[in-house]
Amino acid sequence: MSKERRVESYDRGRIEDLGRAKDWAIHKPGMWAFYLHRFTGLVLSFYLVMHLGVLGTGFWLGHEEYTVILQGLESLYIVRVLEIGLFAAFVFHALNGIRIVMFDMTVGLDIQEQLFYLSIALSFAIVLAGVPFFLL
Amino acid sequence: MSTKKSNTAGWNWFLQRATGVALVVLLGFHFAVEHFIVGAHHITAENTVERITYGVIEGDHVLGQISINMPAFLYQATAILLLAFSIYHGMYGVYNILMEQDGLKKYRAQLKYFFIVFSIVLFIQGILIFLAFFEPFWEIYDPR
Ligand code: HEM
Ligand code: HEM
Fold first, then answer.
1. Least CB–CB distance from A45: residue in B24, B94, B143
2. Does B89 contact ligand 1 (Cβ within 6 A)?
3. Within a domain: B22
């Protein structure tokens, strides 16, 4: 990476933080990759906690209640759509995670940005192909 | 990025990567089972027992009628590893994000213990879920 690409992160105080909002416009791909990875990781973690809560009804309430609750949730259109979002979060986080691990092993360091665009493109393709499974 | 302060930090850094790579397979398999073969809206306690107790994955969704009979212990292993790895990877990830927020640094110790305890609670809940659909256990325990 060339020098001017490096993100400076010394503390410039609260007021300057606000001014930095405009930085979004000039953020480099690596920064987008970082935020997207973080966001999708948080989505997956939040889902995991909710998921274990919902599945737990199978133990705490019993099998009949488990089936009723799961089928009830899945009968809501919004849940189906959100699950596509969850799948998209998984696919991007996984592909970009592989990209990060590759860099840690010093593989592909000079094509970081191309690999980011590749993981975005692959994510779109995989999620689009998956849509019927979630909505039908 | 990876300023390794101690050996523990180095280990956690490595485990974050190792569990991540394993999760590609484990969670990929999980989505394939629940969404592509069974179809989330066809999930019932009955077919959850088939998967967890007998390793039988059955579905009639977009791909048509599919029935996979895998060794029970193999399916059980994917479930428990998915449970352990996603809790470790996810909770350690969230903890790290919080530790990067300057305002929270003074609560480092408290947050650390919170996440350790919370992760253990999640893991126990996961084991109970597993047992609820593991027939030999449920036949004895079932509260009704
Ligand atoms: C599917 C396979 C996955 C791979 C390959 C993967 C890979 C990674 C890697 C390499 C990191 C470290 C990023 C860094 O240090 O810059 C990371 C962070 C993270 N992952 Fe994953 N992960 C996967 C699945 C998951 C799952 C299932 C969850 C949630 C349960 C999750 C939640 C997180 C969180 C919260 C972070 C912290 C993000 C940050 O520090 O900005 N990941 N992941
Ligand atoms: C919307 C998509 C998903 C559906 C429909 C779904 C459904 C299920 C179902 C029905 C089970 C019960 C056990 C079984 O059938 O084998 C289960 C178990 C599990 N799921 Fe998911 N899941 C989804 C996504 C996820 C994600 C994204 C994660 C990780 C972050 C996850 C983590 C787990 C874990 C750890 C278990 C094991 C619980 C145990 O046996 O203790 N699931 N899931």
1. B94
2. yes
3. yes
Pocket of ligand 1 contains residue B28 by CB under 6 Å: no
Structure tokens at B17: 């990567």
Fold of A27-135: 3 helical TM bundles of succinate and fumarate reductases (1.20.1300)
In a domain, B5, yes or no: no
Which residues from chain A sit within 8 angstroms of residue B126, using beta carbons?
Answer: 52
Which ligand minimizes its atom distance to the CA of B16?
1
As a three-state string, the secondary structure of A38-106 is HHHHHHHHHHHHHHHHHHCHHHHCCHHHHHHHHHHHHCCHHHHHHHHHHHHHHHHHHHHHHHHHHHHCC
Interface of B with A in 65-84 (CB under 8 A): none
* Angle, helices A63-74/A77-104, rounded to nearest 10 degrees: 90
Tens-digit pLDDT profile for residues B60-110: 999 999 999 999 999 999 999 999 999 999 999 999 999 999 999 999 999
Q: For chain B, what is the domain count?
A: 1
pLDDT (tens digit per residue) in B10-47: 899 999 999 999 999 999 999 999 999 999 999 999 99
Look up the domain containing B30 and give its range: 14-140
Domain positions in chain A are: 27-135
pTM score: 0.90
CB contact under 8 Å between B128 and A90, yes or no, is no
Which residues make Cβ contacts (< 8 Å) with residue A131, sequence separation at least 6?
A: A84
Kindly provide the ipTM of the predicted complex, given to two decimals. 0.93
A55/B129 Cβ within 8 A: yes
| CATH number where B110 lies | 1.20.1300.10
The tokens describing A53, both together, are 């809560």
Q: Is B114 on the interface with A (CB under 8 A)?
A: no
Atom number of ligand 2 nearest to Cα A58: 12
